[in-house]
Amino acid sequence: MDAGSCNACSTAGTPLMKYSLGKDFFGRAYDRLSPASDQSPKWYCEPCSMMKNLQRDFRDIRTEFDKLSKGQASALSEPEAKQRAQLRLREIAAIAGTQATGSPLINSTDVTQLIEQFHAHA
Ligand SMILES: [Zn+2]
Asked: What whole-number distance in Å separates Cα of residue 69 and Cα of residue 59?
């Protein structure tokens, strides 16, 4: 079974990786094949597979930050987790910034905005 081309950048003729069960940024079990917003299995080439990991971490962190800023229970309530998330965001911003044409998976403006929100919240 082969999807033929990368689901993110449409590159063909390169080894593709299928997403499978893993852990999210906060160590929770995460089924990458069937998150609510992602009903069908996806295939990614190596660079996009890396960006997909960044995108997943970014989404997790943003979701938890939203809860935190609304005063709800959040994985970021732990100062250690919050610090780790901020470091990861900077890493994501740095890697996303090296993509010459920008990745279809990560919007570096969104990442920068979240970093600023973290600072504002501190
Ligand atoms: Zn790709």
From this structure: 15
